[in-house]
């Protein structure tokens, strides 16, 4: 029978964050995942770490994540840039939302000319925009694998192609036998309804399925940061509840019911190879279907053609991503003694996941000073 101080179920960004928090405190850590490497939401997203668009608990976790991302990028050696986030405003009501949010700091208003020096867009209807300064961009296709390699180098034991069938105080049951654990951290995203169905049902967690695509475009210049639009402003915590946002939402939905029906977040990031990640649509259900309507991809391409100063867009890939969706932005539940379940329950887990895991673990284990470490190890013995 093997044993670790901390056994983490799930090797997405939240599970990796938990493993990182525990191993830095000198604890032995095993991470179990049923796939052969991370292939869940953590590699299927935009790589947009949209810290400055959050508020409340999400902002706290986002701020905590920022330093962890920067340190991991350096230590694990993966691409990350302190790009900020650009927002393109094509209507005065979008500018009004940005101006109102900018009063609280961390957002710099841009005129249309400044925006065009940072993003290869058509002049078209642009009325200006903004830069959300604290934000980062990662390449989601390489970050998780690099973090796995780095954590393995720090001594974390990864058990891939091993499904967890049950968790209880002090033990994790897997398809390759049980593992004894001081602390169990369940970080399985939407699959919480399979491993801990009672928790998922009590909290009201379902799945949110998103369509995404990657395109090659003949852009005249690089996109220097993730790019949001008015459709993003109505979603993110910092903007969503502003009084100005109600009018924006109403106009967008009245003008484009087709895009509203897709629950569109029109946004883009450019990968280091120059291709653009384009998305995304949202369908929430206990079990969304696997079939991706072509109408969503047509809309992505039409909207990209209207926004970017490019004539040719060639689709390179399409995929579906899924994340947990619940009534609150996060799940943090002690489901039994020494068993924690954590998840981002809206689409901000790349932004907040490392900070969520760090906070949950630090509150459970204490800091890694030698005395705190002894306390933590004694607590787990
Ligand atoms: C299309 C898309 C775009 C997004 N864009 C952004 C963005 O730009 N910025 C942002 O902040 N967030 C974004 N998100 C959200 C973000 O990607 C997720 O919130 C985050 O990746 C969730 O991380 P996770 O570790 O909880 O889940 P995952 O990465 O899905 O990892 C969960 C892991 O648990 C494993 N697992 C499940 N059940 C078991 C079991 N029983 N036994 C063993 N292993 C198990 C799975 O195999 C998986 O590897 C996006 C999400 C999607 C889908």
TrEMBL record:
Keywords: Flavoprotein, Oxidoreductase. The keyword Flavoprotein applies. GO terms for molecular function: oxidoreductase activity. Residues 5-359 form the FAD dependent oxidoreductase domain. InterPro entries: FAD-dep_OxRdtase, FAD-dependent_OxRdtase_HpnW, FAD/NAD-bd_sf. The keyword Metal-binding does not apply. It holds the Pfam family DAO. Its cofactor is FAD. GO terms for cellular component: cytoplasm. Gene3D superfamilies: D-Amino Acid Oxidase, subunit A, domain 2, FAD/NAD(P)-binding domain. Belongs to the DadA oxidoreductase family. This is TIGR03364 family FAD-dependent oxidoreductase.
